[in-house]
Amino acid sequence: MTAKLIHLDEGYMFGLGAFETIAVESNHCVLLKEHLSRLQKAIKFFQIRQKVTEQEVFQYLENRLMEHSVLKIMVSAKNIIFTTRQNPYGEEHFQKGFTLGFSDVRRNETSPLTYHKTFHYGDCLMEKRAAQEKGWDEPVFLNTKGEISEGATTNIFFVKDGIIVTPPIFSGLLNGILRQYVLSRENVVERIILADEVPTFDECFITNSLMGIMPVRQFGKTLFPERTVATRLHERYRQEKVTI
After folding, report:
1. How far apart, in whole angstroms, are the C-alpha atoms of residue 133 and residue 126?
2. Model-level pTM?
3. Is the pLDDT of residue 2 over 90?
4. Euclidean distance between CA atoms 238 and 30, whole angstroms
5. Least confident of 1-5, 132-136, 150-154, 238-242
6. Do 227 and 134 form a contact (C-beta atoms < 8 A)?
7. Whole-Å CA distances, 159 to 164, 197, 215, 239
8. Which of 51, 55, 78, 122 is the right S-S partner for 9, CB 3.0 to 4.6 Å?
9. What is the overall mean pLDDT for the chain?
10. Domains within the chain, CATH numbers bracketed
11. What percentage of the chain's residues is helix, strand, coil (to nearest 5)?
């Protein structure tokens, strides 16, 4: 493997950079166009004169055998970096389901950084570690108004009487690629959701590009034995992901 020199630009000194994590199944980058489109919007937001093309991605993967893997693309003013690793999520995680709890850290819905996938990822990583020490799989952030926003690495959905609901973007969340996938295929109600509403829902699931659709078995003290919608979406995504 050839070492690459990383330039100490504003991305690596001040966090002014963006990244994407993309699921790769049998050398197919799932929802690649959508990932690159979101990456380019973040690059433009930072006024970075860089661009990552599909051809560059294909060229990077050309001599790599990637079955159930992850491609990470990081972009700053003077760097474009590709890395790969194994996807840590498997069917056993879906069968078990995730546990969630509320973080004490608030998501800042007034910050434009909240709405891009940037190098400013400290809150997410630290709260994820803190959550795991408490026995949770994922922490969930409220915003400064007490509204549910998102997980540290996920978007969140609830189901009530067969109706899927999710927080709106203006509650302070990243518009995840799998969030967009669900919204494009289901009738989803985007509305403000408060913390005390959690026990009133029948079902809960979370999404991100690596885990896909993940059922939640427990959120705080609330148990969610129901997973009808999550299972249906999981099966659909599992069948489609090698072609989209």
Report:
1. 11
2. 0.96
3. no
4. 11
5. 1-5
6. no
7. 4, 11, 11, 23
8. 78
9. 97
10. 10-86 (3.30.470.10), 91-240 (3.20.10.10)
11. 35, 30, 35
